Amino acid sequence: MTTLEMLNAAPQRLTVDAALVAEAIDAASDCALVCTACASACLSEDHAREMAVCVRDDLDCADLCGVTARHLARLNASDKQLTLSVLAACIEACVQCASSCAPHRDAHEHCRLCEQACNRCEQACQALLDALKTPV
């Protein structure tokens, strides 16, 4: 079963394209897992102390992405402002995390993969945010 199938099976009707919501949920879920794994990998590096900012940003991003995925999966249309705020926070966390991983991407594959996951999540959440802001 895919996220899109689950969204389409729910009795609630979305005010935006379900594919945008599904992509944001999937990207945020993936990003949460990748950021958690990156933080763990950073802590295992020989120079882990130098990667403290990256670890902190990984963990912040993982937390916010996880919350975003779960919030979006609830299909809670009753509080649009909360959804906009959650998406904005997730986007900011992804931007911050990607910029923290970027300097390490050539030396550490986990940072390169994390940066990519953050960029994907940022783009998916921004697309959904833009769609939600557009008057129907």
TrEMBL record:
It comes from the Bacteria. Pfam families: Csp (PF03860). This is Ferredoxin.
